[in-house]
Amino acid sequence: MKKVLVLALVFAFGLGLGGLAETVLETTITATPEALDPAVVFGENDWKVLVNLYDYLVYPSFENASPMSAVAESWELAPDNKTWTFHLREGIKFHDGTALTAEDVKFSMDRMITIGEGYAHFYRGRVKETRVVDPSTVAFELSDPFGPFLVTLYRLGIVNKDLVMANLKEEGMYGEYGDYGKGFLLDQDAGSGPYRIEEFKIRQSVEIAKNPDYWQGISAESPDRVIMTQLREAATTKMLMGSGEIDLAHGRQEMTTLLSLDAIDGVEVALIPEMSLDFFMIHTKKPPTDDVHVRKAMAWATDYEGMLAIYTDCPRAYSPVPSQVFGYSGDLEGYEKDLDKAMEELKQSKYYGQLDQYPIDVSYIQGNGDTPKLCMLFAVNMAEIGLTVNIVEAPWVLFCNKEESIETSPHVTNLFANASYPDAGAILELKYASWTVGGWNQNEWLQDPTFDAAIQEALITADPEERAAKYAELQRYIVEDLCPSIFTFLSVLKPAYRADRFSWPAGDGNPHAIAEFNFNYMYFKMLS
Amino acid sequence: MALFIFKRIGYGILVLFALSFVIFSFIRIIPGDPVRMSLGPTVPDEVVARMRSELHFDRPIPVQYYHWIKGVLLRGDFGRSLFTHRPVSQDIAEFLPRSIELAIFSAFLILSFGVLFGTISALFRDTWLDNLLRLFAYLGVVTPPYAFAILFMLLFAFYWKIFPLGGMPTLPEELRVTGMTAFDALIRGQFDVFGVTLRHLVLPAVSLSLGSIAYQARIHRSSMIDNISKDYIAFARVVGVSGATVVFKHLMRPSFIPTLTIFGLQVAALLGNAFLIEVMFRYPGFSQYSLQVIMTKDPYGIVAVSLVFGVIFALANILIDVGVAWLDPRVRLKASE
What we know:
Radius of gyration of chain B: 24 Å
Largest interface: A-B, 44 and 41 residues
Distance between the termini of chain B: 9 Å
Number of helices of chain B: 15
Strand order of the largest sheet of chain A: 14-13-15-12-16
Number of helices of chain A: 15
Structural class of chain B: mainly alpha
Helix content of chain A: 25-40%
CATH topology of the largest domain in chain A: Dipeptide-binding Protein, domain 3
Strand content of chain A: 15-25%
Strand content of chain B: under 5%
Oligomer: heterodimer
Structural class of chain A: alpha+beta
CATH architecture of the largest domain in chain A: Roll
Number of domains of chain A: 3
C-alpha cells in the first residue's frame, strides 16, 4: 500500500512539475576564489561565492546593510559595551546534516583569529575571548568597546567544527590543530548556507548546488545550480552572452564591452554601487604635495564631471566614505572644478613660482579598467594650473613595491579603495590611520596624530549616533582641512545579464548595499 | 649514438640546474614581498612573518634555494603557491597536461599541413597553386593567433554552431590517467567524451597552429627547392627512378632536416605562446597559469614554470638533435666519433 502511495505521489509530482527541468545559471567571474575558507579569503570574487556557502550570525539588510537576525535570533550588548551575547536559532544544519551550535561559532572565531588572514584583523587584539554559554548561546568578550563589531560579523562565516576537525592535516603551523583545516577548505565547504559546493576547479570555475534543507527555506524558482566561470576576455564574453551560453557576466567590463553586451536582445545591465571609491591619493610628505594649498589647488582643478563621463552611471563622491555606508556625512560639499579657486590656493603655497621644478608623478595600475583615462584627464586638469604631470603606468607588483616606502611612493596614485565592512570607520582607518601606511591603500602617508586619536576614539564608540557624529567630524577634517585625497566617484559594478532568463533584486533596481551580497543566488528567480 | 644522447641529456640537466638557481635568485632579489601581496595589506605583521618563516623566505637566498631544490629532488615538491595556496606540483599536474594535449594536436596539424603545403608549393613552383599557397603562407605568418581565434569563433561557433565556444569537458577524477582529457577518454573507453573533447580542441588548435603551419610551409618549400636542383636528384631522374620515389625517398628526407629543427622549437614554444588562445577559448592550460603566476609574483610558481619550460625546450632540442642525426648520416657519423 505504501509503495502504491509513494508511486502515486511520485506520479502526481511528476505531472505537476514534469515541465520543470533542473535550472542552471551560468555566470562569469574575473577570477575564481583563492579558497572556500572564510578565515583566509578577502577578495570580491571569494565573497561572491562565500555568501552562498556559509551562514552568518547577522545578515546585512538590502537597503542600508544594517544587521538583521540570521543564525543569531537576537543579541545584546552588556552595559560595559564590551560583551556581545548572541542567542542562536535552533534547527540550523550544516550541509552534512550536523547541527550548528555555539561551539561552531566559537570555533569559527578562534580559528579566524589564530590563522590571522582574511578579515581576522577585525578581531585580532579586539576579541579577548569567545565563550560558549550554552549550545545555543555564545558570547564575545572584547578587550575594548568596538562600535562596528556587529557589522563586522558579516565576514565571519560559521564553519562546521566537526567537519573541519575531521579533516585536519597534521603538518601545519597551528600546533595541535595542524593546518587548521586550511587544506580541506581550499576546495570544500563546511558551511550551512543556501548553496553547497559541487565542484571547484581553481582558476577555472566554481559550481554550487542548491541546499534543499536550508533553514530559511529556498524558493523553487532559485537556480538549482550555479556555474561561475573565470572569464575576463571581452570578445568571448560577448559571443557567449550573444549565444545565450552565459546568463550573467561579471560587472567589471570595460565601457565598450558593456555597450556591446547591452545591445544584445534580452540583455540588460544592472547597477550595483560598491562600498568603494575612486581616489587620487596625494602624497602628503613629498614636495610639492606636502603643502596643503597645492593639494587643495589640485582638488579645485579636477574635472569631476569629465571623470564621471568616463565612468558613467557612477555617483559623485564628496567624502572618503561611500554614501551607502553607515557614518557617511552628507553635509560636505567637497570640491568642484573652479580654476580661480585653484589658483588662489596655489598662490598661497610656499612652492608658488617654482612649481615647474616639481613635476608630479601620477601612477596607476596597468590593466585596471579605464583608470588610464582618468589619469590623462587629471594631467590635463593639472596643466591648466601650471602643474606638470608625468603619468606612470605600473604593473601591480611594481605599484605595490613603490607603495611600501615613503620615499618611493609617487606624488599621486589612482586606485579604488573600499570599506571592508559597512561602517565609515572601516575606510577612514584603512585610508588615513598611521598604522595602515606602507600598503597600496594609503599613498597619502598622512601620519596625522589628530586623525589617529580621533579615529581610535570613534571606533570604540558603541552608540551609533555618537559614532556617526565623530565620523562626520573626521570627514570634515579630511576634506576641508587636510585634503589628502581627491574623491571622484563611487564605484559601481555593472553586470550584464539576460533579463529573459532570470530576475534578481539588483536587476529590479534594488541592489544590496554590500555589492557581494547581490550574488546570493537564493534571491534569484529563474524565468525559464 | 647512445653516448651522444647521454651527453646531450647531461648538458641539459646542468643547464636546468643553472636556470633554476638564476630564476630563483632573481625572483627573490627583485623588490617587493610576495607574502604581503598574497595576504593583503591589513594582515598583521606577525602573520606575514610566520608565513615567510614557513616558506624559508627569512633565510639567505642560497639556503632558500637549498630547501627548495631538496624538495624538488627528493619529493617532487616545487613549493607552495602563494596564490592558489596549493602545492605548485599539483597545479602543474593539473594545467600542464591540458596544454600538452593542445600542443600535440597543434603539432600534428603543423607537421602535416606545413609539410604538405610546402611540398605542393615546391613541386608546383611558380604556378598559380604555388602562388596561392605562398599568399596564404604570408597571411598565416603575419596574422596573430588571437585574430584567427576571434574569426573562427565568430564563424564556426557563433554564427554556424559547428564547434563549441570554448571551454573543455572534464573527466571524473577516478577516470583521470594522464590529465589529457581526450587521451584519457580514449584509453578509458569514454568515446562520447573523446568526441566532445576533440570538438573543443579543433578551434584552439587550428588558431594556434595556423601561423606555424604557414611558417613551416615556407621553410619546407625553400628546403625542397634547394634540394631539387642538387645533382643527385638530377642523376636519379636520369637513371629512371620514378617521380614518387625521387620525391619521397631522395628529396623529402634531406629537406626534412631544417623542417624538423624548426618544428621542434615551434612545438616547445606552443606551450608558452598559447596564452591568448587559452584565455579566449576558456581553455584551462599551463600558458595561462604561467602568466598568472608571473603577474602575481608567485615565487615558487615562477621558478617551477620556468623549469618546466626549460625541461620542455631541453627535451625538444635533444629530440631535434637525435632526429637530425637519424635523418642525416653525416651528423650521425660525427656524433658517433
